[in-house]
Each structure stands twice: as structure tokens, then as C-alpha cells.
Design brief:
Layout (H helix, E strand, L loop, with lengths): L2 E2 L16 E7 L14 E6 L5 E6 L3 E6 L11 E7 L6 E6 L5 E6 L3 E7 L6 E7 L5 E6 L6 E6 L7 E6 L7 E6 L5 E6 L4 E6 L3 E6 L7 E4 L3 E7 L4 E6 L3 E6 L5 E6 L4 E7 L8 E6 L4 E5 L4 E5 L7 E6 L5 E6 L3 E6 L5 E6 L9 E3 L5 E5 L4 E7 H15 L1
Amino acid sequence: MAKESENCWTDDDDDDCERDFRKTGQTCYKEEERLSDGEEKVFDCAFHPSQPVLACGLSSGSIRLFRGHDEDTPFARWTPDDRFRVDAPSHIHCLAWNVDGTRLAAGCFDGTVVVWHYNNSDTSLIPFQAKEHNLAVFAVIWNRWNRNLFASRSRDEGELQRILIWNSDLDDLYDCECLELGTKFVWDFEWISSTRLAASTYEGSILICDTGTDVPISRLFHSGVFNVRWHFALQYIVSCSTDGSIKVWSKKRHKDVGNIQLDNRIYCVDCHGIRSGEAALIASGLEDGTVVIWHVTENRFQTLNGGHSDAVTRVSFSPDGQYLASLDNEEKLIIWSTKNWVIIFQHIKSISEDWSHIRWNPTSNKLAISTNSSQVHVFELEDEFEDCIDSSEDQTS
């Protein structure tokens, strides 16, 4: 059992916080494109894994791309790119790029799944779509080892929960297989190899499923399990539960190899690899507003109190591991420095917005949030604004 270490941040430290990030954003429609029943709404957004491109999924079934000169260009300078519409007039609910940025997948409210093949030479997108779900698609997740493979999840009406696995290969566009999970609801799922995924269920199980099979090959038991993640550095499955526990599982032996027990329900978890001279990290968000950091290889954990006053529903490490973003039920965003675990930025949404997904860009200097409004919000490092001001002054002079 891991031991708790001294808390690294309290309210007394607030005056010393560095404000490294600043909020900006752009509207995702032009005035002449306003819908007859109101504004376009952004339900999800996703940064390209290697290019300065942000894709936004809109309520009209369209994609709006914003493109920058490079990742350091302030988002206010990113320009809207071409616009692409799904044939079926359905809201886009979720978006995801594949590992090399050659595919963009979208899940729609009417159960449609769409894939665009991203062509770097002429920035054209070739649509592929199919409607195999009969209710809204909650998530699309790409396989990180196979750029053509992804899975989608929906609560299909009148059926037990299932996950669909798709092959987006250009030579075999419509290749879909169905995993019948025999459960009332799947909370979360994650690819853990090129052919295998793990899914957390309503009944307190983690189902291990292989491609090419229609039923799970193994079942792990974790009462109240909610999120599942794959820890690349440790090569373990990580799960969190509403009973206050986090467990680490061996993929090969299908058994619990480590755990911690906390005093509150846990609603989210995220992982980051081993940095030079430091421990592998697992972050979790709790019902009482606490964020807990588990230093797995050091067998200790620490609590970050005083930032949130409501249940933390999302935590996300930046790709370079320098920052941790956390979001609570009141939709207050906090960005923590992982160097000393102090708060370097915090922001509370406006009443009219409904924040959902949070997405880091590949260079960790921008964080995008879809707002269920006409705006996409981007929080970026302040030195980029200084560069923008300096450039404007140079042009004026």
C-alpha cells in the first residue's frame, strides 16, 4: 500500500502562483453560416498529433479546421481552413485523430461514424461513413499501434452494450466487427495493444477483448470501476473506482499488481511516463475536489487540496509531462505545474457554457476546451502573446 506524502500546495501559496497561461478562443462559424435555429455549437475538438491544426466538430455535422503557421503561433492568429460536412445532418459528438494524423474520426448523435483521410499534399479529406450504432456515439478511440484501427462506443437502444471495431484502411474501407460485451453499460475503454482493448463496465468488471473475437477473453474484477487507462511506461492497465481505489494490472498475468485506497469516490484518472530521475505518475480526481498524485515507482502519493470545491471529473497530463489540467463539476479549470505541484492557472467558465472535453496540443503549450457553444476556448502560454505583441509593434514601426 502506498504511503501519503506531505501536501505540496495549499491556499497560502496562492499569492506566489505564476500565471503562465492565458485564455483565448475563436468562433467556429461565420455570420452568413448561422443556422436557422441558432448558432453552431462545438461539441468536441482535437489537435492534430504533429501539425498546428485544431479540428472542431459542430452541431451541423460539419468540421471546422483552424491552422497556425507553427505550434508557437498564438491561436488568435490561426486561420479557419476548409469546412467539411457529414452527409447525414447530425451533430458531431466526438472527434479523434489517429496516431500519425492521417485519419480524423467523428462520432455523431444519430449513431453515424465518419472517417476522413487526411492528405498532406493538398489538404483534401476523403469521407467514409457508416451508421452501425442506433444511438449517439459517446467515444471514438484510435489504436496507437495500428494507425488504421479504431473503436467506437454507444448505448445502443434495446441491446446490451457493445463496442464496434473499425478498419479504416483505404484498401478495405468498410470493415467493422462487433464486440458483444454482455453488460448494461461501458463506462470507458482503452486500447492496450495493437489487437487488444480493456473496457470498464457497470457491473464492476474490466473486460479484456481481442480483435477477431466477438466476446471478451478475460474479466478482471474491480468493484465500482469507472475509468481505465494504459500506462505506457509501466506497461500496465490502470483503473479507478468510485470505492476510492486505484489499481494497476498486469496485462499478461491479468492480476492486480499494485493499488492505493483513498477516502473519496474517484471519477477520473490519467497517467504519465517516467521522466529523468523521477517516478511514473498516476493522477486522479476525487468527489471532494481533491487531486491525488500517485508516484507509483516510489510507492507514495500526495494530495493537492484547495484548488477545486466540487468533484473533479477530468484530469489530463500534457504530452511533455510539465503540466496537469483538472476540471471539476462546476467546470473550473486548473493547470498545475508538475515540477512543484503549484497552481499556475485557473479559470471558471461562464454560465452559458457547458464544458466537456479538454485536449492538449502535441507541444504542450496549448489546451483546447469544447464549450457546447459557438466558441472553442484555447488556453496557451503567455509568452506566445508577448511574441505576438512584439511582432505587431515591429510591423507598425
